[in-house]
Amino acid sequence: MIKGKKILVVHCSDSDYKTHDDISVIRKWHVEERNFVDVGYHFFIKKDGTIQKGRKLKVNGAHCRGINSKSWGVCLSGKSNSFTQAQMKALEQLTIQLSDRIRLVDQHSAFDAKKPFCAGLNDNQVKYLNNLVNVA
Predict the structure, then answer these.
(1) The sheet that has 71-76: what strands, in order across it?
(2) Model-level pTM?
(3) What fold is seen in the domain 6-135?
């Protein structure tokens, strides 16, 4: 690993309910149901492309067992393959914004065989995001 650089791990919330399209809902699930100290993700991207902040970047996440200390988590609202163009544009912008501090972008399924559909990005989308890291 490039010293100090993180992996950006992309997740999906696995819910398309409009009432779940906010980090406050995910925070409630994580704190009340999983006994986390805060929401496990560093960012949440709503259906309209709004990027909401979760944990501070200097605080380890609770989103991907085994690599939380080496990664930042971003969660896309919705089920895999149901993301909006606005969400994908926001993910692109977030990747560019963080590009000098990340070395790799990949989805949760790449690190956890028990989550084969999280986040649901295709290979071309993952490659595109990684090209933004490599050129920025």
Answers:
(1) 51-53, 43-45, 71-76, 6-12, 102-107
(2) 0.94
(3) Lysozyme-like (3.40.80)
- Distance of alpha carbon 32 from alpha carbon 16, whole angstroms: 21
CA angle 61, 113, 71 (to 5 degrees): 25
Distance CA 6, CA 4 (A): 7
> What pLDDT was estimated at residue 134?
76
pLDDT, one tens digit per residue, over 109-121 is 999 999 999 999 9
The C-alpha R_g of the chain, in whole angstroms, comes to: 14
Closest CA to 26 of 81, 65, 85, 77: 77
**What span, in angstroms and rounded, lies between the C-alpha atoms of 113 and 118?**
10
Please state, rounded to an integer, the average pLDDT across all residues of the chain.
94
Q: What are the residue ranges spanned by the domains of the chain?
A: 6-135
